[in-house]
Amino acid sequence: MKVQLMTKAAYARHRGCDEKAVRKAIAEGRISLIDGKIDPAVADIQWMQNTRARVNRRSTINPSSEECAQAGRAQPPVSASVDSGYSEARARRERAEADEAEMRTAKMRGAMVMREDVDRAMFEIGRQIRDRLIACSKRVGSEVASLQSAEACEAVIEREHRLVLSLLVDSFREKIGTSGQSAKAEMH
Length: 188
Fold this sequence. Notes:
This protein has helices at 8-15, 19-27, 40-50, 57-60, 65-71, 80-109, 115-145, 150-176, 181-187.
């Protein structure tokens, strides 16, 4: 399907507005251009989402029966669904912007962490734990080989595991920002 592009003047006629209004909307970034021309389908959507409704809508959008009779024309149908659609879209956008601002504030206060940061930290911590556990067997192998009882071997291995788990708690605290105190207390 080929897109039918329009000039600014043609789009102004299509919207039933002045070309100056179209140029202003482009300059303010409320509608976009494709190679200097306008895609009317996209621009209509952008216009509805990004243009504020006029405050005095009665005389410009929906004239009264008396005003229509004086002008010698029939009263136009009320387009409340367009107005409410715009208002709802604007309200959703404003709620989303407020939610985003709250999340940024929470992150700055340290009350919230980003999922990507947690995922990255967990990957790094997991890799460190793997490497430390592998190194643990090399580190304690000779010490355990000289021991005579299973209990003595278990004590050495447990000591090394506690060391690795303590490092895990410290890594969590450092990378994710959690206190880690309760986890550390449970290990002792």
